[in-house]
Inverse folding.
């Protein structure tokens, strides 16, 4: 009887609709991606590029379900004092964690980040794959950079070979 229950549970998990799609989408994300564009659209306002027109960044999705993001402003210089060190921190975004895919959405359970406010949070993103490019978009959210305003971030990545 126990074997029958275990078999039935396994069958439900592997045969439920959408499971293969999510698995296929996750497999398509696996690899190293180079950041080519990062735009923040202020809802009802203008678009900005927080790290300029040539941001630097890499996203790495692993086959065992982890993702790492690092993004930096171009032309960073080594810090010689505390003020310059603080400026370097403001020109960096980095986090990592386990990710899951559900349709066109992936959720990262952040286990480490450059800003401890993000550690332990779920970061939900929407994605669209087109060949060797992936567009990743945030949901509309309250901005930490533009107080009192809502924003949507869009990042464009190209697969690295």
């Amino acid at each position: 009887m126990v074997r029958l229950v275990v078999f039935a549970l396994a069958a439900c998990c592997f045969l439920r609709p959408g499971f293969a799609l999510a698995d296929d989408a996750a497999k398509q994300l696996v690899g190293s991606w180079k950041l080519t564009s990062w735009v923040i659209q202020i809802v009802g306002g203008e678009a900005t590029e927080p790290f300029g027109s040539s941001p630097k960044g890499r996203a790495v999705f692993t086959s065992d379900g982890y993702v790492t993001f690092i993004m930096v402003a171009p032309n960073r210089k080594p810090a010689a004092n505390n003020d310059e060190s603080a400026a370097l921190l403001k020109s960096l975004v980095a986090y990592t964690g386990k990710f899951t895919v559900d349709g066109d959405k992936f959720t990262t359970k952040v286990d480490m980040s450059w800003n401890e406010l993000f550690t332990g949070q779920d970061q939900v993103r929407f994605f669209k794959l087109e060949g060797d490019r992936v567009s990743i978009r945030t949901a509309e959210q309250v901005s930490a950079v533009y107080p009192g305003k809502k924003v949507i971030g869009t990042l464009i990545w190209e697969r690295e070979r």
